[in-house]
Specification:
The complex is a heterodimer of chains A (250) and B (155). Chain A has 250 residues and is mainly alpha-helical. Helices cover 75% and strands 0% of the residues of chain A. Chain A contains eight helices and no strands. Classes of the chains: A mainly alpha (250), B alpha+beta (155). Chain B: Belongs to the CcmE/CycJ family.
Chain lengths: 250, 155
Amino acid sequence: MWKWLHPYAKPEKSYQLAGKLLPWFVVVTVITFVVGLVWGLLFAPADYQQGDSFRIIYIHVPAAMMAMAAYSTMAIAAFIALVWQIRLAEMNIAAIAPVGAVFTFIALVTGAAWGKPMWGAWWVWDARLTSELILLFVYLGIIALYNAFSDKVLAGRAASILTLVGVINLPVIHYSVVWWNTLHQGATIMKFDKPSMAPEMLWPLMIMIVGFAAFLGSVSLLRFRNEILARESHRPWVSALVTDKLSGEK
Amino acid sequence: MNPRRKKRLLITSSLVVGLSLAIGLVLFALQQNIDLFYTPTEIIEGKNETGVKPEIGQRLRVGGMVVNGTVSRDPESLKVSFDLIDNRGGIVTVFFDGILPDLFREGQGIVAQGELLTATQIDAFEVLAKHDEEYMPPEVAEALEGMDHLKSNKP
């Protein structure tokens, strides 16, 4: 059943596959960003209570969702890395972690900027905000741990374990607004009910979510390719690739 | 699957399960401390889970809907007072001296932080507006005026 996957355990194959996928992700990112941002920021109607301030949702929500999606991907990779000991899965963690950290940071900053005029406070220690901040720290921890070892086999394993430990935070973030009284509002679209948002405001948001997903994919693929090259730099296929490139430039 | 992989699968899975269990228990134990605020009914009758009532003079946060027609402003200062209600009918009065957030209005959900003066009165030093998860253009909001949760938003 999984036989078709086996060739991709070889770094060279994965490197090539990532290279093939990359342009598609970039194209989707550019199109959705242009359409989503113009539609969301200029044409979507203002909210009945918040006015134009609600438009930060087109950055805040996709960034927060993709920060969690990136972490889920890393957690799956960590599981694979620990059980099947596939080095590419470890490289995947190292590639995605900084991207996820930046998305988390964007979600926190845009949330604070919205919170000041709407709630009346930049920051409140409620369950949603606090668990999101913990997510940022977990991301930073994984990045730091991975870079703390010069032996990358050890580094990969340590980072995988930390990634798995931190995965407990994901359901806490998602359900924090349900389980506890929080200042942060409940879920608008990620729930088993119809979204509590007018369709003409929802569409650009959906496009932006796809856009952020494609953006996450593009940057991760780029970083993944770099990570493979860096860790396989002593392999003949990498030197062949480099000499190819150099002779092509002459 | 070879035995070594099986063993690693077992160890890794039990790591995840064990940790979720531990965190789950911790969060369960901390339940009422993680809540950002008391609801008005909880101030009067005690916390849902434990029945513990807040003491007079205790610093706390209270969250609820501003009752229509109870907002009274002092014409000479920023002093304002209003009643908060929740879906179980408890009502407390909040006194505040300061600038209210943009979203503050009658029928709006808010969270106030302050000191409990008497069993149902709070002297707040911070008032935050709590926004709900509904987003819609003004025209739609007007068309939906008959809807329950919006009815209370109109003065």
